[in-house]
Amino acid sequence: MSRIGDAAAAAGDKPGTDSTTRRSVSRVLLLDDDQIVLDTLSRMLSIAGYEVLATCSTAGALRELERGGIHVLVADLRLPHGDGLEVLRNVRERWPDVPVIIITGYGTIESAVKAMKVGAFDFLPKPLRGDQIRQAVQRALEQRVREPLLRSAARRQRADDMPEQVIGETYQMQRVFDLVEAVADSTATVLMRGETGTGKSLIARLIHRRSPRRDRPFVEISCGAIPETLLASELFGHTRGAFTGAVSDKDGKFRAAEGGTIFLDEISCASPMLQMKLLRVLQERQFEPLGSNRTLTADVRVILATNLDLPAEVKAGRFREDLYYRINVVSIDLPPLRERLSDIPLLADYFLRRYASRSSKRIVGFSPEALECMQRYPWPGNVRELANCIERAVVLTRQEVIGKEDLSPQVAQAAEYAARPPAGAPGWRAPLKEALAEPERRILLATLEANNWSRTRTAQALNIDRTTLYKKMKRYNITAPR
């Protein structure tokens, strides 16, 4: 083994070389059975400013690679003890970040193709010119710096592009999938019912992807997230001057979804006037933008969702009865996560892979204690809360396995409550008031989540007055999210 330092540091950089790249990654290992070739290449690369290590044996090259610090390997294709392709395979398997340049005096197209297939960075025929080998090493060093960044970017891109999946093996979810398959090819209006966070938006997208309209737009709008005064404009558009601030004509979501699907979430929040307009669109496929007498047609498949009991809303006079019967052509009920506990490990694994890939972390799974906690927790926020819990755990953990301590406190405590002996059983020590406190707190949380933290609707759903609800929220330290 010979070691040649920066023999020509004072000679300056050759044209076309990158001194910044060389300073950060500059150790080149040469492997050739011809000492004259080794001396010539060492001199060429040393003049360019690289630190060069040279050896005539495969064993010597492997020993140097094991020591570490090698950034590029230049190896002859034909060696007395083995060949360059064997070395190349070994290096690609054990040191995949080290680019390998194959050189040979017996170069053929077939051998070049074989070397590139095995993973060679470049293939150069002898005799080598100085600029040829220097440029090849420079490109290899630049690739070595760039490749981890490209891999990281690709992982992030895959994570971001990873389509949201609807996961479930319970009979409730199989029933949902059967309904999706049944209605996808039709133009029938679909009404989805379920608590907040159960995946209504994902099911709407799944119906669209399975429908003949899959190549046309999918437009989603949350009726509860837009002020009542602007919602009609968002849906149907407006003309200039239709209201204060309307400085130009604007197309609405129905025009944007032409030929495709529109998903109206939280439809129970629509005002009586808007409900009437929706009824006309569904019946006649026509509407007028605000401030216009021009009637437009709407070739749009409509999917709606609600987390409220619409028959009760109809009975209370807050939702039009004729609209309810018009939108309730096909209804799909999404079960809360607490009713599909066997799906939690599947969902948790999916979210773990998604967020670990996005964070470029190697996390292989969950501890048994963490899975037990997740399956005992009632998940008032449903799948959305589970996703947030997994994302938090991925960010915080320093281990390859997510443990109970990585979960949010309320999830981690779930197993402790569940582990207590049942009331009346040997070992039971809690008084009745304490025993009832946790179930009541969970019911309050679940009902608040299901009603978007509306205290009025929550009190009505629980059949208690608002004062009682306020007191119970204060007792259990329940506060609405910001």
| Main sheet: strand order | 1-3-2-4-5-6
Report, as a whole number of angstroms, the end-to-end distance.
67 Å
CATH superfamily of the largest domain: P-loop containing nucleotide triphosphate hydrolases
Structural class, from secondary structure content? alpha/beta
Name of the level-1 CATH class of the largest domain? Alpha Beta
Which regions contain 5 or more consecutive residues with pLDDT less than 50? 5-23, 153-163, 418-429
Query: For the CA atoms, what is the radius of gyration?
Result: 33 Å
Mean pLDDT: 81
The amount of beta strand, in percent, is 5-15%
Number of helices: 21
Instruction: Find the count of extended strands (DSSP E, 2+ residues).
Output: 15
Q: How many structurally independent domains?
A: 4
Could you name the CATH topology of the largest domain?
Answer: Rossmann fold
